[in-house]
Amino acid sequence: MINPLVGMPQGLEWLVILAIVVLVFGAAKLPDLARSSGQALRIFKTETKDLRDDTSSTDATVTPEQREIEARNEAASHETTGDVVRERRDDTTA
């Protein structure tokens, strides 16, 4: 259950937050701050889109044979025999 006292700011709270931001950053710096945060958001979106495109394009170029080979290799790497080999080693450093 969500606590009704903690939530999104509404009405007058937004004005107080805006006043604090203006006092902290100054009115002259606000356009630069908004511009740089917009550029950062745009770069972030393009990078995530590029990552999604890269993963979908690599999945499309992998042949079924390659997928089968990768699955076999992965299964072989996770396979265990259950045998534990213990060896006694002589300590020659002392």
UniProtKB/TrEMBL annotation:
GO terms for biological process: protein transport by the Tat complex. It is found in: Cell membrane. The chain crosses the membrane at residues 12-30. It is a single-pass membrane protein. One of its GO terms (molecular function) is protein transmembrane transporter activity. Keywords: Cell membrane, Membrane, Protein transport, Translocation, Transmembrane, Transmembrane helix, Transport. It comes from the Bacteria. Belongs to the TatA/E family. NCBIfam families: tatAE. This is Sec-independent protein translocase protein TatA. It comes from Nocardioides alpinus. The lineage of its organism: Bacteria, Bacillati, Actinomycetota, Actinomycetes, Propionibacteriales.
